Amino acid sequence: MSGITTPNPGNVIAASIVLPVLCTATVALRFYARYVQGSKVMLDDWLTLPALILTTGLGVALIIGVEKKSLAYPTPLPPDPHHPLDASVYEIRVTRQITWAFMLIQIPALGFVKLSFIYFYRRVFCTGSGLTKIFEHITTVVIWIIVAWALSFFFAFLFICDVHFAAFWTSIRTLNTYCGKLLDLQLGFSISDFITDFFVFVLPLPMIWRIQMSTSRKLAVTMIICLGALAVAASATRMVIFSRAVVNLKRSYRSSGADNLTTTTGIYWSLIESGLALIACCLPSTYSLIKQKARSTHALSRSSKNQTSSTDSAGQMMPGGARFVAIDSQVTADFGATRPDAGIAEIGDQIFVMKEFGRTEHRV
């Protein structure tokens, strides 16, 4: 593909394994954050589960394609070089079958991610009165637009060859005969995907800057929301790649037949977009937990330097050999510790905090 490096088999396999694993970890962290924060698991969280399953399916499809030497490998020569459009080589058929299945899986996967973003915004900003009521109505309209977008493209791809499903993978000639609008549909999907991603991304920004809070706080919230820009960047990249791929494939489908490497590049970047979009969807929900744990770890690391001297001054050991650790009340609060009557805060099962609870008692 002109201007774009075609991924080799190792790149495709690595992305097909690493991205689903990262997505699984991020979604799990999202649910863990809800548990730690005592927040209710709501629809924006549940929508990430089908998105995760479908994204994993995309990775599996690419792995199968590489294993069959259909993806990330050059297109095999046709049996009859004078009629390349009629070639029905095994590797070409598998490539077309994977492409068809891939598109049918990716469309709902991206739809679930977009809906998760929107329901997360409703969770944060919709309180049922005033400006938030207007925002609720706007997001309701956007939800229906996203649902209609996903359903329309799903069925458009499903019936791109009318009911001649096998025409999609029999040969390029049958593809051109029964599925002539395929490449235009793929390009339209990638463009509309970017447009909807961008709109979903900017949707909450006016609400943030109308909320009654300090400018610095507004900037902080904006930066958290901007973590979702990763999804916009991924869809923009895929859109550019697809536009180039369509040009190459149209040329191939008119004369030389299939182009497995160009097809590989297109769906490879589609997998990257789907994975990064799901990760970006979960980042705002997990940001506070990650930040809290990072601060707590840093504070505990600093306090551990004084652990030995503090233990000596205390001169006591807790049951089971656990030491008294003298740290300030802010660290205790970061860990979510609770203060017993005796002035000892317990963190988990092993760490006990000895604290003089005086005038700073309210901070713990």
TrEMBL record:
The UniProt keywords, alphabetically, are: Membrane, Transmembrane, Transmembrane helix
Pfam families on file: Fung_rhodopsin
InterPro entries referenced in this protein's UniProt entry, alphabetically? Rhodopsin_dom_fungi, SAT4-like
- Domain Rhodopsin intervals: 29-291
Gene Ontology annotations for the cellular component aspect, listed alphabetically: membrane
The membrane-spanning stretches of this chain are 12-33, 45-66, 98-121, 141-167, 187-209, 221-247, 267-290
Q: Give the primary localization class.
A: membrane
Location within or outside the cell: Membrane
- Tell me the membrane topology, using the record's own terms: Multi-pass membrane protein
Under PANTHER family, the record lists: INTEGRAL MEMBRANE PROTEIN, PTH11-LIKE INTEGRAL MEMBRANE PROTEIN (AFU_ORTHOLOGUE AFUA_5G11245)
The UniProt similarity line reads: Belongs to the SAT4 family.
Name of the featured protein: Rhodopsin domain-containing protein
Classification from the root reads: Eukaryota, Fungi, Dikarya, Ascomycota, Pezizomycotina
